[in-house]
Amino acid sequence: MYEGNPESRSGVRSNRSRRVTFLSMSGNGDVTPGAVGSRPPLRLACYFDADSQGGSSASFGVLLGALDPEFDITLLGTSEPMLRTVAGARPGVKTRLLSPVRSKFDLRAIREHVRALRAIRPDILHVNLDNPWTSQYGLLAGVVTRTPTVAVIHGRNPPWRRRQQWLVRLVARGVKAYVCVSHDSARYAESLLGLRPGSVRVIHNGALVTDVSPPPVPGGEVRIGAVGRLSPEKGLEVLVEALPSVPGCRLVLVGEGPERAKLEELVRTLALGDRVQLAGWVDPPWTATWAFDVLVMPSFMEGFPLVIVEAMLAGIPVVASNVGGIPEIVAEGETGLLVPPNDAAALAGALRTVVDDPGLRQQMAVRCRSVARQSFTAETMAARFEALYRELRA
User: Fold this and answer.
1) Strands 23-25 and 31-33, bridge-based pairing
2) Average pLDDT by consecutive 10-residue portion of the chain (394 residues)?
3) Do you find a cis peptide bond into 285, omega within 30 degrees of 0?
4) 387, 68 in Cβ contact below 8 A?
5) Per DSSP, what are the bridge partners of residue 33?
6) What is the pTM of this model?
7) How far, CA to CA in Å, does 164 sit from each of 171, 194, 199, 371?
8) Longest dimension (CA), the chain
9) Which residues have C-beta within 8 Å of that of residue 209, sequence separation ≥ 6?
10) CA–CA distance, 16 with 383 (Å, rounded to integer)
């Protein structure tokens, strides 16, 4: 839905600034510093072909800003606005704009991808995929140049046609490591791409820990919120339909997208104009602008939504659909409640439970902060990717 805050990210990098000393074994088996000094900084090329803002690009930006400041990173993309936005997460990062590949017959653009990677000569290529079928020409360039490639899949969309799946499976054989953001999407990717069961690694998305506080919720009002793109798979119509059965609260929808007009019409039809606000786009971090008592995510499908992690870091309990990687973030009854997707009655019941019980909300808020700071920070995510890069380079 949005990209992270470059200033906050630069703060994360300064906290993690360090010099890595590589160790070697002496003749007597003791561990000693390498005789030739520190190993050269890891050269990392990061590729993505997203042309609009979304959760996978937001997570990519968070990772870019949190990686070891000594890494020599070049960011490659096919959309100038998105390349500029994601590069803002790491001031000074090198960038290279590539022509988008229009089809498998667009040999000029494919050759451009390959030549760019050969010129950079990275130790590792990190390719960010919205779903298993995107960024394939970045993967192909890695395979052609024999660059150790890490493919990171965020979503679990099915293939558009059988030929596409067959071609992607061919490229997948040359990829060194596949990573998914949840165990659910990892098993799905293994099945679709014909990969060995258990071979896809899982690294959960992480978010920035910020000290920015939003304005308080007006006294006596319980405010529930949904943050993300206003698109059909987010299930926001179900949320609006559930609201009449949840008295004593107001709903704020933060984000823009193609469903806005339909949602506005539904709000009018249900006479909810005094209880629903469509707030539109908000600059990141959204937690600095909006304070919610409860975050709601009624999606029909999700990978590992960063919005939930951001809410938990801010101490906001979650009510969400039991789909994709969401159960790997939200602990039922501890940090939130899970409901079946596309079930307005179940969603309304869960919302009533947390809206009517301030004590429960407070208990969940404390648990949310604890769990998120332990498992879902940008530093934790970056450390796991750094370990993977070094493993592949070694």
Assistant:
1) antiparallel
2) 35 38 33 46 95 86 96 97 95 97 94 98 97 93 97 85 81 96 94 94 94 74 94 97 97 97 98 96 90 96 93 96 96 97 98 97 96 96 97 93
3) yes
4) no
5) 23
6) 0.83
7) 11, 13, 22, 39
8) 79
9) 313, 373, 377, 378
10) 10
Cα dihedral 167/51/160/140 (nearest 10): 0
User: What structural domains and CATH numbers belong to the chain?
Assistant: 15-206+377-393 (3.40.50.2000), 222-375 (3.40.50.2000)
Find the angle CA(204)-CA(207)-CA(211) to the nearest 5 degrees. 155
Read off the DSSP letter of residue 294. E
DSSP 4-70: --HHHHHHHHHHH---PPPEEE-TTS-EEE-TT-SPPPPEEEEEE---S--HHHHHHHHHHHHS-TT
Token pair in block for residue 5: 């805050």
* DSSP H or E run through 337: strand 336-339
Which tokens in the block code for residue 260?
A: 């806005």
* Residues 6+ away with beta carbon under 8 Å from 257: 229, 230, 231, 234
